Amino acid sequence: MKKSLVKYPDVNYPDFWKRVVDVVLAFFMLLVLFPVFLALFLGISIYLGGSPFFFQNRPGKGAKAFRIIKFKTMLDIRGQSGELLPDEKKDNHLG
Fold first, then answer.
1. Where are the alpha helices (DSSP H) in the chain?
2. pLDDT tens-digit profile of 78-87?
């Protein structure tokens, strides 16, 4: 038997196939949900004006910060003295 000159890295095959399935399913779900995301994007853009996205930095694994992007579900309004209003008054009726 001939010895191979190529060294293959140690691959944990169950983890590899789980990753492949995760990526394929995520891609498929993005295709399926694209019309819903587009409708939300247009609805929030027209209703609120400006960007329909909410950006926030959050702590992740090992306390490393990452940026999360979500659709806005609340208005950016405040009371007369600058205080935050209750959630019932900030709902945008689309979220």
1. 13-48, 87-90
2. 778 878 777 7
Place of tokens 């247009």: 42
- Four-point Cα dihedral 16, 21, 24, 27, nearest 10: -110
Comparing C-alpha atoms, which of 69, 40, 37 is closest to residue 56?
A: 69
Q: Are 74 and 91 in contact (CB under 8 A)?
A: yes
Q: Within 10 A of 21 (CB to CB), how many other CB atoms are there?
A: 10
Q: Are 78 and 85 in contact (CB under 8 A)?
A: yes
Task: Tell the residue number behind the tokens 């960007």, with chain if given.
Answer: 51
- How many residues would you count in the chain? 95
* Separation of CA 77 from chain center: 24
